[in-house]
Amino acid sequence: MTVANLKDQISRTKEVIEDKITKMNLWKVELTTYEADNLSAEDIESHERSEKMVTTSNLDKYFNNNEDKNPKKGYLHVFIVPTATDLGRKRRNTEVETTSRKRRSWAINSTIANELRDSVYFVDTTETSGPLRDMIQKGEFVALYGTRASGKSTRVDQAIFKLKSEGYVCIYVTLEGVNISTTDIFWSSLGTKLAINAPNYFKYNEVKSSDDFMFKFRKSNWESDVVFFIDEYDVLLEANDDIKSSFLGTIRNIKNSKRDYAILSFVAIGPLSILFLKSDKINVPPFNVIKPFRNPNFTLAQVESLYKEYEDDNKLTIVH
């Protein structure tokens, strides 16, 4: 089945016929539930995990689950993006609906991605992230720590947005869900995560060992400096010493031979405990734990500013 066949089937649905959509583009995009409920068509098109589906391509190019050549039943979600002509025709009809969707909401204990910044209330950390970006641009291997739900991941997301605009390649991966049974399984599982989170740079099964990881980042492979962010770094505290030694040794090798590698900076993210991660074989961690970056707590002024925005948006007064 091709993308063209899918578009033809969609065009026959009641919803599409009623909305008089005659032309459409289909995109494959990985979204969180919150993103799916709140992003506009424009946001979906520009999303970092979106890919426009080529009409002449087979669906298995986009949805091969390694078990069969078709999307799993119940797992295919289609977002229809009308072409510019149809958008112009439908703008008047959807104006009220679009406005209501842009009402801002509160998001607790979750990363505020840049594409969601206009739809939620949050503390903008761009200005206060200057010291973090300075450490990165100096080529430091940074330990970024803070309490749970303190905005670490949101700060990192905003830093990535800024760094990308300056020409850096930013790769973000989390150790949450990475299998830490054995050293071989750890590297293979991490490689799978990289293929999922950074498909533009990693292929499935491309990284299955520490040697694969180092070889991937040899300088000749990259045209720009790479900044590597690794979240939930404290997962390694539960790993056996062989895994810790393998990972810490790999990062230290890259740090000690930076002229050979494209990685400019490595940022480990997690709670305070990440400052004490070491192994029996490697007592000196590759990250700067002497001068780490502490994720600052919100100030009273920042919190008051958020509530003031909420009051203004909803035309009400909050009694303290």
Automatic annotation (TrEMBL):
The keyword Secreted applies. It is found in: Host cell; Secreted. Keywords: Secreted. The keyword Secreted applies. Pfam families: Crinkler. Residues 2-80 form the Crinkler effector protein N-terminal domain. One of its GO terms (cellular component) is extracellular region. It comes from the Eukaryota. InterPro entries: Crinkler_N, P-loop_NTPase. This is Crinkler effector protein N-terminal domain-containing protein.
